[in-house]
Amino acid sequence: MREPFAELVGVELLSASEGFARTAMTVAERHLNMHGTVHGGAVFALADAAFAAASNAGRYVSVALAMSVAYLSPAQIGERLLCEAREVHASRRTALYEIRVWAEEGSSGREVARLQATVYRKGERAARPE
Amino acid sequence: MREPFAELVGVELLSASEGFARTAMTVAERHLNMHGTVHGGAVFALADAAFAAASNAGRYVSVALAMSVAYLSPAQIGERLLCEAREVHASRRTALYEIRVWAEEGSSGREVARLQATVYRKGERAARPE
Amino acid sequence: MREPFAELVGVELLSASEGFARTAMTVAERHLNMHGTVHGGAVFALADAAFAAASNAGRYVSVALAMSVAYLSPAQIGERLLCEAREVHASRRTALYEIRVWAEEGSSGREVARLQATVYRKGERAARPE
Amino acid sequence: MREPFAELVGVELLSASEGFARTAMTVAERHLNMHGTVHGGAVFALADAAFAAASNAGRYVSVALAMSVAYLSPAQIGERLLCEAREVHASRRTALYEIRVWAEEGSSGREVARLQATVYRKGERAARPE
Known about the structure:
4 copies of one chain form a homotetramer. With 130 residues, chain A is an alpha+beta fold.
């Protein structure tokens, strides 16, 4: 599951299993917006990579239909961002994911963004030849 | 209003005035996802760049609070994507933008994504020294 | 296509055809929230009724997967609210609707809310016996 | 904090404190849509009532800017729906709420809808005369 865009942005895939994935990114100069904080598009890319990994790690070929994002606090250069995407509901053809992004800060962390995403399951993945 | 992240992704800012901006991007290998079509994060970055430009081109310093995106059709490598962000409503402290992305195809175009975005206006921009 | 909830709220269905419907409601005391303006849930019910009518008026049995609403201006008791829901994109199994609500004011109108809604098409409607 | 619209729909306010509220509703014939299941607008009204109570129970006068809802499973006549709205983040002028609706079923419950809502805090409530 190579993702050229995730590589371009510098998103690291920490883990992925059916319905759950974690990604991370360290905010660098190339992730900034005109205000000098992390670009909303970079935060979204981090979240989308976790979501795509979680929703495609198992049996299903899934594509995003709709996503909503709430931005909670800006992140600064040098900060380490962590993201988790988790399937919270599934029916036969669709599923809902909740995705959270936070900045690592000591033991707790500060929330940076929270997303909801609805996928459409196009079908089951063809079994890979052995 | 330099945007390092927009440059990283390859988003071109075609025009920006208070409340309206246009961006463009030609889909390249680096924009792809695991399905071999354009990554949702790349489409979002294109839209977000137009939105940020439109909402910061005038008097106000604006930050995104919430955005929702509906993905309508996938885009392929080599396609030219165009995006328009337009303010559709404003009150004293908040404003709503509508953002559309389509693939240039002959005369008409095929819609790729449609977004709504709510901004918070932090204040008026300090006048620039002459 | 009787809708008990739309009747309870006082939503009038003005017209419905495949992919397009209009509804209306006159704001009464029963529609108010704790601030004395129209309740967000009443505005949503007006929009949802138009959307459900438009997405079920034709061949397809459609159910809402995800909706997002942006509230633009409050409405007052006595105001007449108009709503239009329009299909802006469709693929085989899903479709996107744009829904707008405004308060009738002289010739133009003031926007009250704007929504995006994604439907899943469960299948085609059984032909009615003649 | 009387809410005529919540009363019209039959929403019960179970508890409300600053940043957290619970509501409930028993699905009756008047809450149904054209498919004979609970209307999306009724579920939204239940969620919106909890959200409005939680975001206005304390110091702040808050109004909704944007909400997104994902519908997870339909609910039937006679089912008891429960809802919780919880503030998950706040800055000086805005806050994010997460709202969940489920159908009471034995010990666990089945999720019916999940929402995110962004509020704008217009100001602090005038102290009530003693």
